[in-house]
Design goal:
Blueprint (H helix, E strand, L loop, with lengths): L4 E6 L3 H12 L3 E8 L4 H8 L4 E3 L2 H9 L6 E2 H6 L3 E4 L5 H11 L3 E4 L10 E3 L1 H8 L4 E4 L2 H13 L5 E11 L15 E2 L7 H7 L7 E8 L5 E9 L5 H10 L3 E4 L1 H4 L4 H11 L8 E4 L4 E3 L2 E8 L6 H11 L5 H12 L7
Parallel strand pairs: 1-2, 1-5, 2-3, 3-4, 5-6, 6-8, 7-8, 9-11, 13-14
Antiparallel strand pairs: 9-12, 10-11, 12-16, 14-16, 15-16
Bound molecules: nicotinamide-adenine-dinucleotide.
Nicotinamide-adenine-dinucleotide binds next to α1.
């Protein structure tokens, strides 16, 4: 039997811990260890899950040991024992580790909070898996960009896209972020148009014509996008629905059937049927799909805490040349219980 690829995870917060759990569910990879900055409840969870903890420096080891948390070594030790590192540190911190990964000759996966220039390629499984194959470093784009790319790359198969306009209503913070807001405001973020999300989409598919605007609202559950896509030719509603139904990692939510018309209900429903209430899939509101000649508009919802997790698993396989595109997507989705149905 082929041995499993050893994956180091640097940063064990919202994204890092979900990636670690997902890696350990795959047949072809295993977490070699995680790098923790603070000896908090996430560190206690790692011990409970049998995941080895490493610290940033020798000095930090003492802080962990004082709390009774066993530490195996520092990040330098972990990297030497691993085949690839997934960096899930906060925005911009990945940049400070780039040199360390490079000098150790280890392949690296970065997240969307880093500049696109950090890696050889910015990545989305549906859009450019083949281009990322064998790349030494890959950046998995942000949650909003991943959501946009899933629907864009799917619908570009129906007919050639001419122009996209998307308005992003972004969650203010993740549920555990107790010091972030806004608490009572709708913040234009950024004020200047188009927002940076359009550029981020272009970091994966440079040929697309897209404009985005974004506001941040006081909620922690999900983002919602209103997307308008103009095609070169006239389109038929059923072709749009069929494409979204058939694409991996997209749920077409039927409001008439489920009576779901909000992010709160999506998460509440997900808590009944999905692990941790995570929704790795992009949720498109089927009843919002509306056609006018060569234009379609619809609402979609993005669970920011978990949508990028399957892409990280695929990025590991692409970087290490383990599997082809659809082989990786289907393995990942099967092991993570990703399907086409919420209700
Ligand atoms: P987070 O703050 O929840 O987790 C980051 C973790 O890294 C924390 O545990 C923190 O203690 C640790 N850390 C801080 N400094 C460190 C250092 N120098 N070395 C090692 N660990 C360190 O952040 P997150 O939300 O998981 O975001 C991680 C990355 O994923 C960012 O690039 C972010 O933009 C991206 N991302 C976040 C979301 C989201 O909604 N949370 C969605 C998609 C992508």
């Amino acid at each position: 039997m082929k041995s499993k690829v050893k994956v180091a995870i640097n940063g064990f917060g919202t994204i890092g811990k979900r990636i670690a759990i997902a890696v350990n569910k795959q047949d072809d990879m295993i977490v070699s260890g995680i790098v923790k900055k603070k000896p908090d409840y996430n560190a206690l969870y790692a011990i409970r899950a049998g995941i080895d903890i490493y610290t940033i420096s020798d000095k930090d080891m003492e802080t962990f040991r004082k709390k009774g948390i066993e530490v195996r070594g520092t990040i330098n030790d972990l990297i030497k024992e691993s085949d690839i590192v997934v960096d899930a540190t906060p925005d911009g911190v990945g940049e400070t580790y780039k040199e360390l990964y490079k000098t150790n000759g280890i392949n690296s996966i970065f997240q969307g909070g880093e500049e696109a220039s950090i890696a050889d390629i910015s990545f989305n499984s549906l859009c450019n898996y083949d281009e990322a194959y064998g790349k030494k470093s890959i950046r998995v784009v942000s949650c909003n960009t991943t959501g946009l790319l899933r629907s864009i790359c799917t619908l570009n198969q129906v007919s050639k896209i001419e122009k996209i306009n998307a308005v992003l209503i972004r969650r203010g913070a993740d549920p555990q972020e107790i010091k972030k807001g806004p608490i009572n405001s709708i913040v234009l973020n950024p004020v200047n148009l188009p927002s940076h999300h359009a550029l981020d989409v272009k970091s994966v598919i440079p040929w697309i014509n897209i404009s985005t605007a974004a506001v941040v609202v006081p909620t922690t559950l999900m983002h919602v996008h209103h997307v308008t896509i103009r095609f070169k030719d006239k389109i038929i509603k059923n072709d749009i629905i069929d494409a979204l139904m058939q694409a991996p990692r997209i749920i077409l939510l039927d409001t008439k059937l489920s009576d779901i018309q909000s992010t709160a209900q999506i998460i509440d429903a997900a808590r009944l049927v999905k692990e941790r209430g995570d929704v790795n899939e992009l949720v498109v509101f089927k009843d919002s799909i509306s056609i006018d000649e060569n234009e379609v508009q619809f609402f979609q919802a993005v669970h920011q805490e978990s949508i990028v997790v399957p892409e990280n698993i695929d990025a590991i396989r692409a970087s290490l040349e383990i599997s082809s595109k659809y082989d990786s997507i289907s393995q990942t989705d099967k092991k993570l219980g990703i399907n086409k149905i919420l209700y």
